[in-house]
Amino acid sequence: MAVDKNKSRREKISFGYINKKQYEFIPAEDVAASNQRIREFMSPLVKEHAVKEAISRKSASKIVLNS
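^ that's the sequence the OP posted. Answer follows.
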């Protein structure tokens, strides 16, 4: 899944920007859309990790029972 560089609005800010109020709030719709893209991208990775963790736990329990 490719990420559109034009949609990325992350910038490095300093306390000077905050003190001078040189910032803007990101609209809730943009945050929700970003969260949805992240959730869709991470879903297969999270599932794969859960499967590997379950296999690892079963393997570890077999080792403990056999020792």
